[in-house]
Specification:
This protein is α/β, with parallel strands linked by helices. The protein has two domains: about 25-65 and about 75-185 and about 245-350 and about 380-420, Alkaline Phosphatase, subunit A (3-Layer(aba) Sandwich), CATH 3.40.720; about 435-525, Arylsulfatase, C-terminal domain (2-Layer Sandwich). The protein has helices at about 1-10, 10-20, 55-65, 80-90, 115-120, 250-260, 295-315, 365-370, 395-405, 420-425, 495-510; strands at about 30-40, 65-75, 125-130, 160-165, 175-180, 180, 190-195, 225, 230, 235, 270-275, 325-330, 370-375, 385, 390, 435, 440-445, 450, 475-480. The structure holds 2-acetamido-2-deoxy-6-O-sulfo-beta-D-galactopyranose and calcium ion.
């Protein structure tokens, strides 16, 4: 009977595996794992990736003490699908409802799915999600009661502890949620949220621009006002639970550091997703006005400070040697993403994509190629750089294998264990990676080539931010090792084009039980 249950309920199987999985004890040298996941941080936005005008000493140090990866790809060019894929090991494009989530979206990952947190938990780790969530909460979109414990929260996805922003800094509700309940809840100011209509008498950015004392919108973000900044969506109440944008990074760091302290004697996994450098960019005054690029540069400095605080805590608790820290970003960079923060005007020669074409939202490399650094002293050699081709889709099985977790059948269907790539032990490229643009166009990329499938949509976004999308009604083929995405070779290289198209088709059709297709698959076979 038990066997049958195991087959039917992969999630339950994961939990049962927990009994057999290794637990921390004498001689257990499995590391703690911390993912530091930045928001909208571009390939060129860190000093150790060539950024101009901004110093990032803490990230530079992380890179110096570990491996700096130069060919890592987020699964998508926006947040929700990248995060969905990272935490489930399934491509978001296989799953409807994984696009940029509203602040009152129902939980996008279902409790029946086996997540990366479940994997760590099943292996005896304590798990935490801290910072930006953007994967929905509760069981029904728009029907959450924000004044009571939420019907579904990260605890249902394997996170023992969570302290999160429901969606993004620019979306209501503007409160932190701790273990499924509004943190610092203020009973005198019950919270209501709507993405359809305003609550009578509540000011908006559109009608009350005089109340926007911190930041004004450039595009769209003109609904409810919180902390002198108007947002997407309407909310009422909140009182003392409402965040102040300038304190968000401090708050995230304080909770992360406390989690490390409290769990220093057991193996832990922490998914630490920063609000930086997403809009609205309004860092603490310690950073504000300090960078010649303005608020966007200040936010990068604040991100770097966050990294420094985490590393200092690890050193002070003696955990820095046995903790694997992996730092990356959910998608490429954007300048004006809806607020008048002078991100365009004050670039002063800095290239957020590090010279790549496109940016956030885009099918081009700027959309999904992101910085990635791994540090684990004694296991990852210091001062390494590698251009091995990596997709964040593989972090699931790679990190789970480090923890000794067993993955139930059917879970993490698109993820492969490529831990050797992350640790710098194996320089074999992933045969291909798939990238998802915000209009759902897929690209298939090998080390040398990139194919962008035809899709509808303008070549340049029609309103702010006017990013080059890479969308075209015609197939595009680029030779990345010679010329980047400059010249479309689709017409000149029909065989290569066909091979890439056929491979993408197979990946699309692939299911968990179908073995992975090697890059060399002959184009004439299906
Ligand atoms: C877009 C928002 C943008 C940002 C993005 C999500 C407008 C015009 N733009 O719809 O400001 O919030 O969604 O960004 O509203 S992400 O990094 O979380 O995917
Ligand atoms: Ca993002």
């Amino acid at each position: 009977m038990k066997q049958e249950k195991l087959l039917l309920l992969p999630f339950a199987a994961g939990l049962l595996n927990a009994e057999a999985a290794p637990q921390k004890g004498d001689g257990d040298n499995r590391p703690n794992v911390i993912i530091i996941y930045a928001d909208d941080l571009g390939y060129g936005d860190l000093e150790c990736y060539g950024a101009k005008n901004v110093e990032t000493p803490n990230v530079n140090r992380l890179a110096n003490e570990g491996i700096r990866l130069t060919n890592t790809h987020a699964v998508a060019a926006t947040s929700t699908p990248s995060r969905y894929s990272l935490l489930t090991g399934e491509y978001a494009w296989r799953r409807p409802g994984t696009d940029i989530a509203a602040g009152n979206a129902a939980m996008v990952i279902k409790p029946t799915q086996f997540t990366l947190a479940d994997a760590f938990r099943s292996a005896g780790y304590t798990t935490a999600a801290i910072g930006k969530w953007h994967l929905g909460l509760g069981d029904k979109t728009g029907e959450q009661d924000w004044n009571a414990p939420l019907a579904a929260a990260p605890a249902d996805l394997g996170f023992d502890y969570s302290y999160i922003m429901a969606a993004t800094g620019d979306r209501v509700p503007c409160v932190f949620i701790e273990n499924g309940m509004v943190a610092n809840y203020d009973p005198s100011a019950p919270i209501e949220v709507s993405y359809v209509r305003n609550f009578p008498g509540e000011p908006t950015g559109r009608d009350n621009p005089e109340l926007l004392y911190n930041l004004k919108p450039s595009e769209h973000h003109n609904q409810s006002i919180v902390n002198g900044i108007s947002r997407i969506g309407y909310m009422k109440g909140g009182g003392r639970a409402l965040w102040k944008d300038e304190n968000i990074a401090d708050s995230i760091v304080a909770h992360a550091v406390r989690f490390i302290d409290e769990h220093r004697r057991e193996p832990f996994f922490m998914y630490l997703a920063t609000n930086d450098i997403h809009v609205p960019r309004f860092p603490h005054e310690r950073f504000r006005g300090k960078n010649k690029m303005g608020l966007r540069g200040d936010a990068i400095m604040q991100f770097d400070w966050t990294v420094g605080q985490i590393m200092e805590k690890l050193r002070k608790t003696g955990l820095d040697k046995n903790t694997l820290v992996i730092l990356s970003s959910d998608n490429g960079p954007v300048l004006d993403d809806g607020y008048q923060d002078e991100a365009n005007e004050r670039l002063n020669g800095h290239s957020p994509t590090g010279g790549l074409r496109g940016g956030k939202y885009s099918a081009l490399e700027g959309g999904t190629r992101v910085p990635a650094i791994v540090r684990w002293p004694g296991h990852v050699k210091a001062r390494r750089t590698s251009d091995v081709l990596i997709s964040q889709i593989d972090w699931f099985r790679s990190l789970a294998s480090l923890a000794g977790a067993r993955i139930p059948k059917g879970a993490a269907p698109d993820s492969r264990n490529r831990l050797g790539n992350l640790l710098g032990e194996d320089a074999t490229d992933r045969p291909w990676v798939v990238e998802q643009a915000s209009n759902h166009a897929l690209s298939l990329r090998t080390k040398e080539w990139k194919y962008i499938e035809p899709s509808d949509g303008p070549a340049v976004m029609q309103s702010t931010p006017r990013i080059e999308t890479g969308y075209s009604a015609m197939p595009q083929l680029y030779r990345l090792d010679a010329g980047g995405e400059a010249a479309n070779l689709a017409a000149d290289e029909p065989e290569k084009l066909f091979e890439m198209q056929a491979l993408l088709k197979r990946v699309r059709q692939q299911r968990a039980d179908v073995p992975a297709v090697p890059a060399t698959t002959p184009a004439d076979k299906k």
